Amino acid sequence: xxxxxxxxxxxxxxxxxxxxxxxxxxxxxxxxxxxxxxxxxxxxxxxxxxxxxxxxxxxxxxxxxxxxxxxxxxxxxxxxxxxxxxxxxxxxxxxxxxxxxxxxxxxxxxxxxxxxxxxxxxxxxxxxxxxxxxxxxxxxxxxxxxxxxxxxxxxxxxxxxxxxxxxxxxxxxxxxxxxxxxxxxxxxxxxxxxxxxxxxxxxxxxxxxxxxxxxxxxxxxxxxxxxxxxxxxxxxxxxxxxxxxxxxxxxxxxxxxxxxxxxxxxxxxxxxxxxxxxxxxxxxxxxxxxxxxxxxxxxxxxxxxxxxxxxxxxxxxxxxxxxxxxxxxxxxxxxxxxxxxxxxxxxxxxxxxxxxxxxxxxxxxxxxxxxxxxxxxxxxxxxxxxxxxxxxxxxxxxxxxxxxxxxxxxxxxxxxxxxxxxxxxxxxxxxxxxxxxxxxxxxxxxxxxxx
Length: 451
Ligand code: ATP
Ligand code: MG
What we know:
By secondary structure, this protein is of the alpha/beta class. It contains 15 helices and 22 strands.
């Protein structure tokens, strides 16, 4: 379906060449010249190791009907007779095209940030919204200054609700993403420790996440983790809904019951069951519920949306080994907060033997030791075996709570770790794997599943 035309681009970027003045329809906007596009606008991005202006001919072969071009790249071969729009910076121009398209189509926008739980909450919100609206959501984890505009531009023109994940590692980034998206609903899922090396403290992280208010529509609504004291000072002129376990919240989670495959609880006076495990997931659900109430979707519809929930792998994914032991693959990423949250879920699950396998949490800079020690202090006598792997995770072992009486060992060899798990697992065991993605725990899990 037509999304834009070269005439729209001409308004945004008057400097042009080729047949830019012809009214050429654009069905999609793409940045990877290898992608087969249909009536595509090619936006060449300059990366650290490549400059996509070099691939313009490939992009044309693959279906580009127009392209943006950086004014700093005029020395590169520019195709003749092909519509080109000259811009200062192609990433900023991509953001401008996304802003323009979002303004033209004017969907209800739901923006989601937070240290942990963004993708999960995005999926929960999108499933609920799909009960009533035509929804487009961030695909996968495309949540940064390039991914977010691409997500906006991926929406079909008849989209009614756009659900966007917003990620960041520095101050200023969420502000930019929020201004591009102009959310009607802005959600902060939680404040953890990710990127603390750039942001200084958890208070700095809370401040950076709160930049999501910069683009919130005047009549928009702010939905937050109400149990987090660092979010308590939200501006008084912004309509705010708080969610959490504390009974002063607008949406209060109570009667929490952890099952083996699902979790049930009350949210104010309605009861729900979700196919996700852990107290943090009940909270993520509460954000989706609050959004649903605000946009006129009923409790029963929200419950029925849980059947359509489509969650990506490696996020507390429940698997089974050949011999029948339960494996939880939660090794998509990690922070101290999310490690503790996952261990907490396993602690409450009804398994005879609980084996926890933790790897390094990366990118913590000078906070690394302290954050790993926080996790160690959380391991108590409800855990039977604790294995750690890598370098930094040694600090987990050094800070174990006094009442941990199980078996523990630190490994630097994958083979030895796999050997130890195999030796000690039984069919009534649950084995939790959690580490930063760089530790490649999926390879270890693959070996264990064969056992
Ligand atoms: P990324 O920054 O990589 O995009 P994300 O914010 O999208 O991460 P998810 O992928 O949804 O987060 O979840 C990652 C992990 O964070 C989960 O596996 C879980 O362990 C933990 N988690 C999810 N929600 C919360 C929450 N509300 N509070 C604390 N931890 C959470
Ligand atoms: Mg994510």
